[in-house]
């Protein structure tokens, strides 16, 4: 995998330098696959296919197994996420305090469905099960900043503000 | 650390040792308060103290979770314990001025309870705090969790020293067994027995054993372990090291859910600092005991809270559970005997070692000894983290500590134990909180999530919510869970949407029993609990949905009616524009109308109405 094999001029070549550093750090560690995938995603923002191939080679694991692990855990992404991440909490406390309405407002305002990324890669909307600050329910995280005590209207304002930020 | 300081209600909040003497401003930097803006407040306070040149007489401590997340950012001034709720950066100057002047607190910024006319000055005097007893949370909200010196001053690692220098592993296990400590992760298995099994396990001949701290707290609506991990990581590590000594392990893992980045960071810092101080590593306290620990992060799979799935995840595989036996105590991580304990369980351990089993068993009732930390949330006035002795009634928890519902209406039920637990109707609120008593009425102590619901919550919708969670989180390995939860969810969804049939409840009940009996792991075995308990106590709500197409809580959208309140309608026409079925008609500047025959109850109009003129009933 050291030679670039990409034929599409539009997509940049995969730069393996960061991944090689990660592999050197973890290759001797027992049960290294999860830490390697986590560090790779941290470095690249997602798990690029060439990275998975290189990891398979370095760890001596079948690519299918790595793909199986990467798709099992919801935090691993096989495609690049948006520049802004909107996470709507759906914990119990958020649910009883109206997370469903908050989600609907955000989805309709941004025009991006839950689990999807906008076509211009500006925003990803995710549903998360519990971010653990239930006392502030319902909660939405935008780029890891929490906004608590929302209702549908406040959520819509929040999404609008993000829309403006993205467009500018 | 004396008994009085730790066992008396909230007395542990009176700092001693290094933290005493000078005036101390404690600012909570647990996740809840951080999200309410406590970091900005902490910076302002620190710079105000520095500017005044008062750093030598006023200390500022950024603590972990202090409990009452609802009123964050929490700021408490010791030694008096003066409490300021919801502090904003603009209030900092006045508060700091009053501290520097050494005079009376700023009265108008003090907390006012809904029941009392006068403000309540001391944090410990809040109704939220009065019935609490802090064993596990003894250092949370008191120390700076990122500074090991604070932990040492509070006596953390004294338990490990006692165990290593004056107790045999067998005596440690005997002590934990005598304390009656049971796993706080949900299953409630005897911790001492678990340790005994791991110690006695023959293993694979390599002699290698492992201990794991399970910090993969995944129940939606639960944040006990997060509060402990962020507020007092050293006590958890100390408990893990004692467990390692007891079972004969030399290596440990702390498996933290990746949604808790602050807990991950604080565990990593704590391990590094403890290793540097010689509390972890080779030859701890000159006893010859060697123990190293490392943090492993989860990646967003609820099922990894199940111990065999957690082990698979650490090994770098898909986090799917396997059949037991063999239990991890016999064959766990990489086939070696492995002891897995929850964060809260481990935080109890050092206290039991330093104070003795008798003092621990003095708290609690029945076979449930000691205390339990609960995350109290939902329709309750005071949400937050609470620690109470077993035996307290549900009513005391909800009404005295939680302050009842925000609008004073009666609570309808509480959900114990999240998606694995069950609901308890108001008529059973006098049930004491114990493992056996709660199990007898269909609920569980569980990991400690307690969600209060009122008349605006539909019990069928709540059951649907939990099922959709477990169905989504089902790993798919065994058929009863993978397909059973899906079929159950379909039935409950149908009922919520008004399409239920009279035979549905029998099918649902039968399916629930089958899924519970046949699933491979705890996730599937407990997934039907919310359905079974709500069928037991709120069957009439299911029947109303099916037979009368009525949702008394008004939560099921498809069964509710949207109406425009004419005196509030300004006739702007926004609702008309967004209605996907052209069900709204009206002339500009005059009240509009919804044609109920065309309305599909999507709620788009209500969300957009600028004058709140659209009501759902």
Task: Give the tags.
heterodimer; A: about 170 residues; alpha+beta; Glutaredoxin; 5-stranded mixed beta sheet; B: about 625 residues; alpha/beta; Rossmann fold; Ubiquitin-like (UB roll); 25 helices; about 40% helix; about 15% strand; globular
Explain this structure.
The complex is a heterodimer of chains A (168) and B (617). With 168 residues, chain A is α+β, with helices and mostly antiparallel strands. Chain A contains 7 helices and 5 strands; from the N terminus they run H-H-H-H-E-H-H-E-E-E-E-H. In chain A, strand 4 and strand 5 (145-147) form a beta hairpin. In chain A, helix 1 runs antiparallel to helix 2, helix 2 (33-44) packs antiparallel against helix 3 and helix 6 runs parallel beside helix 7 (152-167). The radius of gyration of chain A is 19 Å and the shape is elongated. Chain A starts with 16 loop residues before the first helix and ends with a helix. The mean pLDDT of chain A is 88. Chain B is an alpha/beta fold. Chain B is built from 25 helices and 20 strands. In chain B, a hairpin with a 5-residue loop joins strand 14 (413-416) and strand 15 (422-425). Classes of the chains: A alpha+beta (168), B alpha/beta (617). At the A-B interface, helix 2, helix 4, helix 5, helix 6 and helix 7 of A face helix 2, strand 12, strand 16, helix 18 and helix 25 of B.
